[in-house]
Amino acid sequence: MPKLFAHRSDRAQPPLCPFCRREIPRPQELDGLWFEFDGGLCRCGAHFAVDPTARNGGAVLMQVLVQSCGGDWDAALELGPDDYRVGYIHKYDSFHHRVGGLAFGTIYLVRPRSSPD
Length: 117
What we know:
Elements (H helix, E strand, L loop, with lengths): L7 H4 L27 E3 L5 E5 L5 H12 L4 H6 L5 E10 L4 E2 L5 E8 L5
Antiparallel strand pairs: 1-2, 2-5, 3-4, 3-5
């Protein structure tokens, strides 16, 4: 019998880095003084963290900037807009590590300009 309606998980896709278009690894708990959100590192050098509620954007973005500076808050606060690029993955489902469907989490990514393209 043919499927008349696609299941939610059928429409979901793996999360792809907006900089290199490769699948990013599943976010993990990070060690650090203030790292509240799960995150990680893409193979292209982009650091990322997840806002599962899509309501903590400023805090998540600040965490990712600190991650990209090796945990150095002073260096992160001295970054200018020309020092990094920001990307987003919307509708992230952290339970299934998929994007799409009814999910509403957001992954924030920061890639230092010094990273190779």
